[in-house]
């Protein structure tokens, strides 16, 4: 269904469809001939026909990965209130043969992100999908590595940015949190220069690694699968699902999964995976089993998959008073002295988490007296190009004892 609330609920490529028939008709990115192209078969996405509700809107109650229509108010209020609901966010990974399956339940993390930014139902789903997609990609990376996903489609919501570390500490934001659109592709946008960019950084790397692909459909899961195929040459399939509760005015449920084929995979494994994805509507979930485990067990049927690891998913922003002080020093010595003379408190707002920060003049003075504060204040008055030129001059200077004085 494509009514406002329902389209924002289901989402993904290959496996989060409202009906098994649509899934069976969709092309699989895991197949031998089409392993670099993923066809989205979610509600309202490419590969599935769109039905428009005649009423004011329709909701979508998502259980693990099965969407079922329900009545809801399409003009739901923004997610500004977070009800206290006990929920444990976690990611699990199963390995079997040459297949790796990850599944994540991140309701609390997505709910907190959307509440902090005051997101509308549409942007809540888009931001939730981006956050879970980044978490699934960051899992299993080297210790200390961080990953940032940036979606720039030119749509009403502007840029969507999500970031996750190897320990699954996440944060993210959307440029226009109150934007709205009938579908997620319309919200994200598919302009001529629409791109998905993933940047990987590590403290020991000389420079970040950045991969950029053009947006394919605006369905975040499908675009991530395309990135994996084109940039990392990894056959994959992904499903992302966010359910919006119009009565409570917040995210009710958020789940996702990622299947990747490891080197040495065979056609038998591909066929079994495709069959398991198609049969999501008949997934068996034992009583008391978490949804993420049930998803992995279902995808691993007949593949001898075994539980590998479990990780906690948390929302965490790195903003702090010390980072604000360093930012003030970057204004330059003259500007910092002006702030001290005026005696005004420096106020700032973090774009990542929406928190308000402030530092008093006394704290600015105290930081200026430290060695780091002096260095940052001196360098802050120079432009980035000027700093690079200064660094180049230092490199050109001969080292002691090696100068040719003749």
**What is the rounded Rg?**
24 Å
Number of beta-strand segments = 15
Report the average pLDDT across residues.
75
Q: End-to-end distance, in Å?
A: 82 Å
Task: Describe the structure concisely for a colleague.
The protein has 406 residues and is of the alpha+beta class. It has helices spanning 4-7, 20-25, 107-117, 121-138, 184-188, 220-231, 267-278, 291-299, 321-329, 333-342, 361-368, 371-380, 384-396; strands spanning 58-63, 66-71, 90-96, 99-105, 146-152, 160-165, 169-174, 195-201, 209-214, 236-245, 250-261, 306-312, 314-315, 346-349, 356-359. The strands form 4 sheets. Strands 9-8-5-6-7-13 form a 6-stranded mixed β-sheet, covered by helices on one side. The chain has a 5-stranded antiparallel β-sheet with strand order 10-11-4-3-12, sandwiched between helices.
Topology:
Layout: H1 4-7, H2 20-25, E1 58-63, E2 66-71, E3 90-96, E4 99-105, H3 107-117, H4 121-138, E5 146-152, E6 160-165, E7 169-174, H5 184-188, E8 195-201, E9 209-214, H6 220-231, E10 236-245, E11 250-261, H7 267-278, H8 291-299, E12 306-312, E13 314-315, H9 321-329, H10 333-342, E14 346-349, E15 356-359, H11 361-368, H12 371-380, H13 384-396
Helix pairs in contact: 3-4, 9-12
List keywords for this structure.
406 residues; 31% helix; 6-stranded mixed sheet; 15 strands; alpha+beta
Task: Report on the architecture of this protein.
- This protein has helices at 4-7, 20-25, 107-117, 121-138, 184-188, 220-231, 267-278, 291-299, 321-329, 333-342, 361-368, 371-380, 384-396, and strands at residues 58-63, 66-71, 90-96, 99-105, 146-152, 160-165, 169-174, 195-201, 209-214, 236-245, 250-261, 306-312, 314-315, 346-349, 356-359.
- 31% of the residues lie in helices and 24% in strands.
- The protein has 406 residues and is of the alpha+beta class.
- It is built from 13 helices and 15 strands.
- A hairpin with a 4-residue loop joins strand 10 and strand 11 (250-261).
């Amino acid at each position: 269904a494509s009514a406002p609330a329902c389209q924002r609920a289901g989402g993904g490529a290959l496996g989060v469809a409202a009906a098994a028939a649509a899934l069976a008709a969709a092309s699989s990115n895991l197949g031998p001939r089409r392993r670099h192209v993923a066809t989205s078969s979610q509600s309202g996405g490419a590969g599935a026909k769109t039905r428009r509700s005649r009423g004011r809107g329709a909701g979508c109650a998502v259980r693990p990965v099965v969407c079922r229509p329900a009545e809801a108010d399409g003009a739901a209020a923004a997610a500004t209130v977070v009800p206290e609901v006990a929920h444990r966010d976690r990611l699990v990974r199963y390995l079997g043969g040459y297949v790796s399956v990850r599944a994540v339940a991140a309701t609390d993390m997505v709910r907190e992100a959307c509440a902090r930014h005051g997101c509308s139902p549409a942007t809540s789903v888009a931001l939730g999908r981006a956050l879970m997609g980044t978490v699934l990609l960051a899992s299993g990376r080297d210790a200390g590595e961080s990953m940032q996903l940036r979606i720039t489609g030119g749509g009403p919501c502007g840029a969507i940015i999500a970031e996750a570390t190897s320990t699954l500490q996440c944060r993210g934001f959307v440029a226009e949190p109150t934007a709205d659109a009938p579908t997620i592709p319309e919200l994200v946008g598919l302009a001529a220069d629409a791109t998905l960019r993933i940047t990987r950084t590590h403290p020991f790397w000389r420079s970040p690694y950045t991969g950029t692909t053009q947006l394919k459909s605006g369905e975040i899961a499908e675009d991530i699968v395309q990135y994996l195929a084109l940039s990392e040459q990894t056959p994959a399939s992904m499903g992302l699902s966010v359910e919006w509760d119009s009565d409570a005015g917040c995210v009710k449920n958020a789940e996702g999964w990622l299947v990747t084929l490891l080197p040495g995979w065979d056609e038998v494994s591909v066929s079994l995976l495709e069959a398991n994805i198609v049969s999501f509507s008949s997934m068996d979930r034992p009583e008391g089993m978490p949804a993420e485990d049930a998803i992995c067990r279902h995808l691993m049927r007949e593949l001898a998959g075994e539980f590998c690891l479990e990780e906690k998913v948390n929302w965490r922003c790195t903003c702090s008073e010390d980072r604000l002080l360093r930012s003030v020093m970057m204004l330059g010595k003259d500007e910092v002295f002006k702030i001290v003379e005026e005696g005004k408190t420096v106020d700032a707002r973090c774009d990542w988490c929406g928190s308000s920060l402030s530092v008093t003049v006394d704290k600015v003075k105290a930081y200026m007296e430290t060695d780091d504060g002096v260095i940052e204040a001196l360098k802050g008055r120079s432009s980035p190009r000027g700093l690079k030129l200064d660094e180049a001059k230092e490199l050109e200077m001969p080292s002691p004892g090696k100068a040719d004085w003749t």
